[in-house]
Amino acid sequence: MAADPTPYHQLETRFARLGALGDAAGFLHWDAATMMPDGGADSRADQLATLSAIEHEMTVDPRVAEWIAAAEARVDDLDAWQKANLREIARLHAHASAVPAHLVEALSRACSSCEMTWRTARPASDFAAVAPKLKIVLDLTREMAQAKAEALGVTPYDALLDQYEPGGRADSIDMLFADLESVLPNLLGEVLEAQGRRPPPVRPKGPFPIETQKAVAARFMKTLGFDFTHGRLDVSAHPFCGGSSDDLRLTTRYEEDDFAQAFMGVLHETGHALYEQGLPAEWRKQPVGKARGMSVHESQSLLTEMLACRSRPFAIYAAPVLREAFGGAGQAWEAENLYRLNTLVEPGFIRVDADEVTYPAHVILRYRLERDLIAGRLEIDDLPEAWNEGMQRLLGLTVPDDRRGVLQDIHWYDGAFGYFPTYTLGAMTAAQLFLSACETEPRIPECLAVGDFRPLLGWLRQNVHRHGSSLSTRELLVKATGEPLSAKAFLTHLRGRYLED
Amino acid sequence: MAADPTPYHQLETRFARLGALGDAAGFLHWDAATMMPDGGADSRADQLATLSAIEHEMTVDPRVAEWIAAAEARVDDLDAWQKANLREIARLHAHASAVPAHLVEALSRACSSCEMTWRTARPASDFAAVAPKLKIVLDLTREMAQAKAEALGVTPYDALLDQYEPGGRADSIDMLFADLESVLPNLLGEVLEAQGRRPPPVRPKGPFPIETQKAVAARFMKTLGFDFTHGRLDVSAHPFCGGSSDDLRLTTRYEEDDFAQAFMGVLHETGHALYEQGLPAEWRKQPVGKARGMSVHESQSLLTEMLACRSRPFAIYAAPVLREAFGGAGQAWEAENLYRLNTLVEPGFIRVDADEVTYPAHVILRYRLERDLIAGRLEIDDLPEAWNEGMQRLLGLTVPDDRRGVLQDIHWYDGAFGYFPTYTLGAMTAAQLFLSACETEPRIPECLAVGDFRPLLGWLRQNVHRHGSSLSTRELLVKATGEPLSAKAFLTHLRGRYLED
């Protein structure tokens, strides 16, 4: 007769089920963004809400708490991965059980409603239209943050941050962002000056047929190492990388008169996908086999897009391939010109269009505002003014309207407070990882110049992907680069690319 | 304070959740058939198995039995739809709780494995390769049939039949099929003789560009009444109608040198879809709001395809539209020729290619064989011989190999015993409904000739679709046509179309 399963194995069984439900929801989200006709929206919302409710119930089930306690009491019976898995399970359980079901549901409904209103308020530049709903979202988020803070023993903002960035704390972010802030304004001035001394790069002229853009995107995805037996590329209004790690669904959107936006977007999402495809196969169904957190995830997309694919070596490889695919000719298609286009620095109002020199300012602004919102030091009615003041101070720009200001990002309207800092943590992590990769494998740049991504991908597989969530973000970075996260490598990268180059 | 929910309302909440989970699974099945890369198969199987296991647990939950008993004790508090819903809920609960979870799981695994083997055994015509796995499937199915038979108080075969055709019983099917068998062999001879007296119809010559075929298919779907804000048309190896009733996912497959197969396939699936789109909106989340059963479902696809779209009036409408779309010319594109092509009778080995005169023989053969298999009167090793004898007796054909014999259909290899008779019950139901529709709305044929499906669809909405599962199959048919199902209308239709016409 088979022995009874141990409490730890009960947890594995439960969380494998939860993982499968999460994957199922991932495909339903992908379908909603890419395939679903409008008339399916209401019942899709029902399906997703049902899956969430079941996931929540299965996670907060009192037996899970008992199994965790029993497994922790006999933690020496577990191997290193099992121990790490138990830690992740306990973390997920703590987050879920901190919040009463009625609050989860109320917040979910408030976010759906607010996001829906935001979709029309943004193009109309009408903050007042969405403010009442955003207030409800903020009130409920504060309540949730407080509940999680008490359960986790951290501040309310850190409790929100921890959802996206396990172990992330505002104190460390403050120091890292202060380091950036002490350097970036002057650096930006120097970069713009250096850039002004060169003739401006020329944009290749379209039209760029969408079918050709799709074929080019797929070709580069394969070159980067994306496995199309485990994923697809489709079209959605907002590009993302979804699905499950065995079946990644990338999306982008195409413009006939500009191939670069979709192209760079696909390379960015491919970075996310390569991370997922490199997660440890034998642990994928367990929490420890999932991606570490949003800053590591974003580091993989930014390393791929910013460090690798906006580099000069990549332009040398890509220029003739793109020229031939689009039947282009002339100076606009030369590698050096494409490189200059891909590294053009232009302060602007919109975060998602920002270059890597000005991007941190966008994130720092949002980070400070959302900390004040959660702490009760700032209220929704004062938010647009605070936003505009921040843009003036950080980038010297006068925001002309809320569409190009406080209304531009979906995050807060969808309840995602604590997410923004992971973008810039990811950028710093990317630079630090890329520097270490190039120190270990000095031929990475020359390989990029001939379209050979294997040395880079090999290093990432070995030093990042295969660890899943078995290490903390900090442990992972120390192990891969020899030191914890700092702004050093990121600033070195910016100086090297934008001043000396 | 809100009153506690009644037991009946507890059931509604539970079954709304189950409905949403079932819909979620429907989209994951659709995705697997249309979009999923091969590498996603294993984790998709996990997702679907997890959803099934949760659905099973939520259905057999002892509280559900208590709620059912309590609701039945106070059934007079319920309105007619609620009463019908309670009946459906009790039926679903009885089916699910008759079978122990380990048997459900073992059968599910055996079916997956057997079906996988069948996929290669069929093209290789290698019955021996799949026979051991089919034996396991049959053994477990017999066990399940026995368990359900005891719980439902019916025979084991009827218990299987009841899964697809609620209330269906082999005794009635025997009588209906005997009526067909006493007429069809002679009728087939007369039809072939009559057909032989006419010059053979001419097939339009391709190629028929796939993009044009898609556009034509979508155009006719709209003409028939399909609402594209609540559905899509895509490509899969085996055509089906999936998704949920708010978001129907139809599929077909296209051949460049023959448009008729995909075209007729789409019209067939559109019939299924129109039924789903016509189900009562306010009850869709409950069991009573679902389609009645497989014979009614198949009646809707066959009525649309066979009765409406293979009729002479439809050919009059469709011929010029098709001719123009494909740039065709000449006799092959004349309405009378297309009509003759669409009603060509040719006895053959393959059920899915069969015309409506010979189709019942295919079904009767499978029905008799599967009854014997379930009753233990026939074993797997003797199945190919029994199949071939049956084809000789029923259609006078000598089966050349198992690929064109016992291996042709997925059903048994996937564990679907008790399904086959619903095809021919559906054909008879379709004829009986169409006859009544034309009696009530005599302009239906002339409307079809100008592409106006509204009178027909209106009648179906009123007399079939809006009832959901609130009536039994028999009640529905008596209410719509004045009498229970018989072979009369079907045989009248065949004689009218194939002998007098």
TrEMBL record, chains A, B:
Alphabetized GO MF terms: metallocarboxypeptidase activity; zinc ion binding
Cofactor note: Binds 1 zinc ion per subunit.
Any one biological process term the GO annotation gives: proteolysis
Claim: Zinc is one of the keywords in the record: yes
Domain of life: Bacteria
Catalytic machinery residues: 269
Coiled-coil regions listed in the entry: none
Pfam families per record: Peptidase_M32
Family annotation (CDD domains): M32_Taq
Keywords: Carboxypeptidase, Hydrolase, Metal-binding, Metalloprotease, Protease, Zinc
Matches recorded under InterPro entries: Peptidase_M32_Taq (IPR001333)
Catalytic reaction list: Release of a C-terminal amino acid with broad specificity, except for -Pro
Record: residues binding Zn(2+): 268, 272, 298
Cofactor(s) named in the record: Zn(2+)
Enzyme Commission number: 3.4.17.19
Functional description taken from the UniProt entry: Broad specificity carboxypetidase that releases amino acids sequentially from the C-terminus, including neutral, aromatic, polar and basic residues.
Family under the similarity heading: Belongs to the peptidase M32 family.
Protein name, as recorded: Metal-dependent carboxypeptidase
Species in which this protein is naturally found: Caenispirillum salinarum AK4
